[in-house]
Specification:
With 150 residues, this protein is mainly alpha-helical. It is 69% helix and 7% strand.
Amino acid sequence: MRFAINLLWVVFGGGLIVTIEWLLIGALLCLTLIGIPFGIACFHIAGLTIWPLGREAIRADMIGQKAGPGAGCANVIWFPAGLLLALIHAVFGFLLCVTIIGIPFGIIHFKLAEHALAPLGKRIVSTEMAQAARARALEKRLSGALGDPG
């Protein structure tokens, strides 16, 4: 079922258009030495935009990976470009939400808009892995709040 919905997303939900957009921006950023980390992040998000169902972008530290040096500062530098990309996703989302059939695709665009604002330091994982990582992080926070040593 995911395959069919992802295929509909690519054809009718704007998936192909926004993926090309992310790839072009990533390629342009990789032309400069300073832009390479931003370009690589764009390529990761492009992979999510072409086939979004069944995958999510989560913070790298939630799955035991390092985000890379300066990911937080880099996201601040990225923010103006990310705001433009988020706005594009939001417009697609609003246009798709006008119809009842387009609402699920609109919701995907709104999620992608969130990722467009701060793409560095995120990893694309399966939905199941993302849920497990969130549950583990919540368990750690609860044990810390309750004073448990573990």
